[in-house]
Amino acid sequence: MEFITYEQEGFVGIITINRPKALNALNSQVLEELAATFKAVDLETTRCLVLTGAGEKSFVAGADIGEMSTLTKAEGEAFGKKGNDVFRMIETFPIPVIAAINGFALGGGCEISMSCDIRICSDNAVFGQPEVGLGITPGFGGTQRLARLVGEGMAKQMIYTARNIKADEAYRIGLVNAVYTLEELLPAAKKMAAGIAANAPIAVRNCKKAINDGMQVDMDQAIVIEEKLFGDCFETEDQKAGMGNFLEKDKEKKLKVVPFQNK
Ligand code: DAK
Fold first, then answer.
1. Average pLDDT by consecutive 10-residue portion of the chain (263 residues)?
2. Which secondary structure element, helix H or strand E, spans residue 244, and what is its range?
3. What is the pLDDT, as a whole number, of residue 108?
């Protein structure tokens, strides 16, 4: 891998996009390496992922404008599909993915963060969808995911004006859940990931699936999705141990003693 690094800390995997010369912009190779990295994650031993960018200036400054500038229509479609496939893989990845946004998150950078489950950022972070200024529409799901996250009105304002927003505004509109100093960001992301990883892994996966799938359908169908995933938990050792520990008032055992079960 030239542009992606992967580290494992306990049950947490940390994926870093490492192309600082271009502010971690997404070219075809970065997208291919990202896809390969996610495919290689060992789901037996990994319960939560953190996605971040190398350096102190940028998370991802968008899709690579140099590479895109010469694309034909067919090549543009192929590039778009490559990106969309990776972003969708992240969104539907069985375990949670936390974006730790350490600077610019523009265009495809904002979009990749929105395909993650949770976004937290540093106080120097800048978000925006500048595509209309480049003569294109957001192409990696920005028109869809931004509106779902921050509401239609704010998404339209950001996309039509192509105006960047800073970390405090991103927090105010609900695009990120928390803002940290740059030094605190990665430790905070790892701490959150470790907290998620300490919970029952199948229950956490089922929560992700229930929220993702339920958000795409009406409430009557969504509740059925939840019922099914709730029911599945009663076939797990985690449920028996978790509830058993509570009833025995044995708080020390928690779920840590329960071996990981892969369904
Ligand atoms: N692509 C390629 N190189 C980039 C880049 C990018 N997006 N962003 C920055 N760089 C490179 C710069 O060219 C520069 O390279 P050198 O000149 O040093 O070789 C280096 O990174 C440092 O950048 P600057 O010198 O510009 O640094 P500054 O601090 O002055 O400015 C900046 C930082 C982030 C404000 C500025 O670099 C900037 O405005 N960058 C472009 C941001 C942007 O517009 N991003 C959105 C790209 S559009 C599609 C699907 C998706 C998309 C498109 C199509 N399909 C479905 C087909 C997505 C589109 C986008 O993401």
1. 97 98 97 98 97 98 94 91 96 98 98 98 98 93 96 98 98 98 98 96 97 97 98 93 85 55 47
2. helix 237-247
3. 97
Q: What is the pLDDT of residue 263?
A: 44
Cα(145)–Cα(262) distance, integer angstroms? 30
| 131 carries an active-site annotation | yes
Distance 5 CA to ligand 1 centre (A): 21
* 200 close to 261: Cβ distance less than 8 angstroms: no
Q: Which atom of ligand 1 is nearest to the CA of 133?
A: 44
Q: Is the pTM of this model over 0.85?
A: yes
Give, in order, the Cα–Cα distances in Å from 198 to each of 15, 18, 38, 72, 119: 20, 28, 21, 48, 20
Between the alpha carbon of residue 73 and those of residues 68, 70, 129, 145, 233, the distances in Å are 11, 10, 21, 24, 47
Q: Which of 9, 75, 111, 252 is catalytic?
A: 111
Is 111 labeled as catalytic in the residue annotation?
yes
* d(CA 220, ligand 1 centre) in Å: 43
Q: Are 111 and 142 in contact (CB under 8 A)?
A: yes
How far, in Å, CA of 193 to CA of 173, rounded? Answer: 23
> Which of 21, 65, 146 is the best mutation target for the ligand 1 pocket, counting ligand atoms within 8 Å of the beta carbon and taking the most?
65
